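User: Could you go from structure to sequence for me? I need the amino acid at each position, not a summary. Structure tokens:
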């Protein structure tokens, strides 16, 4: 990896002070020169070691070592004379670690920052440190750790980066750690084990949060899906009310013991150049089932042929697993296209599936339409009238609108999790539930409540949300 060089003035100062602390007088500096360094380079012979100005002597040695690219040899020679000096060991660790990790900064700065936060959590805890920014370069990170003058802290930083960095070859870093401290391998094992425990805790958190509220929506959904294997549902609420979180919960409730082919289709018109949503839905379903549209002209006959093939493919698919189609980010502007999809594809599909399979068939054919902006009442689409007994599976069931989480719902959830949740979280919510919902959760908006609980449990909601909501 090349010769070691001092990165900046702080490392010069660190090494100078360490040499002065480890080599107590001019005789030790003379020993360093005569017995160790003269044989490496004649440049060191020019240093007069009779002076009692140790700081000047140290700087002279460092200048020549830097000039001749012999910093590593200078460190090793000084450690031969005083192997147990704490300052010298720390300086050696900092300088050599900088040399090893600096090349990784470009692609792995975030990993370095996360490792820094893991080994220095107190710097970002407490009221006064909440808005403090993490150093934006490896040099600044190392300088922050350097100021603590704790070798164990530096070792933990290196160990976290080794375990969490996901870098193929960090052999040199592991060798560095084992050379600096005999217990470095044990530290790596401990961090690896803790990581595995954290993953379990995150999974626990995910499962518990899935059970928070949405009771009315889940009850209505299960009352239908348990009786009929075909159904279409609208999930709706204001922005930030957790529609996709509810969607995940509903799908998991039906796929827990059965495999499913989940087909998410984003129909937000802003995401595509082609404004024809119904064509886009058809093409995505065609691609999903490997149906080739050989005719580039999107005429009515060609459209019908493709739709027939999609219907046949879905019916075959249902022999082996459930099929769940998700139309994500619907809105009032797209209502005509959603209508067209229902009439042209969904309605004939449900009719054929109804004829081919029993009503209580173990595999489900489900359609979810997700409204993220609370505009569904402005849509003009066919909805099922639940007050009548003439339900048809192609008609869409409008689930209850998602509401804010109330004090009673949140404390009830806490009471049901009393043996599971951290006691600090339980007590905090019980005592301050009204204030928490009003001031920290946007008055009880579901996503804000989920974010708050994640934070109190020690996790960042935004780091976990995308991972949890993947299909």
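Assistant: Here is the amino acid at each position, in order:
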């Amino acid at each position: 990896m090349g010769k070691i060089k001092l990165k900046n003035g702080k490392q010069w100062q660190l090494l100078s002070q360490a040499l002065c602390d480890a080599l107590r007088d001019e005789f030790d500096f003379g020993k360093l020169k005569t017995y160790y360094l003269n044989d490496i380079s004649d440049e060191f012979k020019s240093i007069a070691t009779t002076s009692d100005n140790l700081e000047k002597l140290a700087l002279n040695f460092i200048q020549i070592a830097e000039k001749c690219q012999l910093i590593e040899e200078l460190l090793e020679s000084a450690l031969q004379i005083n192997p147990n000096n704490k300052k010298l060991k720390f300086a050696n660790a900092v300088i050599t670690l900088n040399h090893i990790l600096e090349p990784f900064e470009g692609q792995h700065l975030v990993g370095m920052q996360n490792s820094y936060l893991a080994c220095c959590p107190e710097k970002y805890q407490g009221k006064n440190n909440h808005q403090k920014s993490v150093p934006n370069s490896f040099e600044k990170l190392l300088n922050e750790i350097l100021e603590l003058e704790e070798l164990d802290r530096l070792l933990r930083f290196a160990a976290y980066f080794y375990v969490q960095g996901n870098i193929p070859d960090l052999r040199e870093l592991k060798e560095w750690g084992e050379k600096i401290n005999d217990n470095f391998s044990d530290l790596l094992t401990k961090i690896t084990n803790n990581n595995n425990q954290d993953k379990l805790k995150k999974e626990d958190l995910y499962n518990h949060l899935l059970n928070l509220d949405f009771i009315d929506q889940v009850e209505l959904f299960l009352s239908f899906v348990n009786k009929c294997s075909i159904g279409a549902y609208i999930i709706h609420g204001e922005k930030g009310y957790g529609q996709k979180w509810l969607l995940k919960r509903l799908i998991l409730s039906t796929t827990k013991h059965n495999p499913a082919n989940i087909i998410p289709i984003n129909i937000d018109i802003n995401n595509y150049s082609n404004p024809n949503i119904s064509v886009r839905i058809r093409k995505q379903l065609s691609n999903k089932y490997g149906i080739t549209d050989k005719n580039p002209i999107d005429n009515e006959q060609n459209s019908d042929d493709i739709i027939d093939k999609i219907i046949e493919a879905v019916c075959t698919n249902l022999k082996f697993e459930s099929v769940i189609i998700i139309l994500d980010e619907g809105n009032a502007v797209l209502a005509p296209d959603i209508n067209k999809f229902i009439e042209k594809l969904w309605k004939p599909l449900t009719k054929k599936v109804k004829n081919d399979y029993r009503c209580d068939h173990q595999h489900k054919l489900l359609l979810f339409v997700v409204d993220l902006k609370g505009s569904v009442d402005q849509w003009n689409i066919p909805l099922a009238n639940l007050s009548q007994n003439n339900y048809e599976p192609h008609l869409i069931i409008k689930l209850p609108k998602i509401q804010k989480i109330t004090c009673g719902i949140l404390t009830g959830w806490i009471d049901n999790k009393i043996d599971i949740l951290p006691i600090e979280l339980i007590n905090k919510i019980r005592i301050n539930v009204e204030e928490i919902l009003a001031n920290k959760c946007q008055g009880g908006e579901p996503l804000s409540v989920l974010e708050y609980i994640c934070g109190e449990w020690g996790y960042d909601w935004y780091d976990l949300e995308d991972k949890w909501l993947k299909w």
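One structural detail worth keeping in mind: The radius of gyration is 32 Å.
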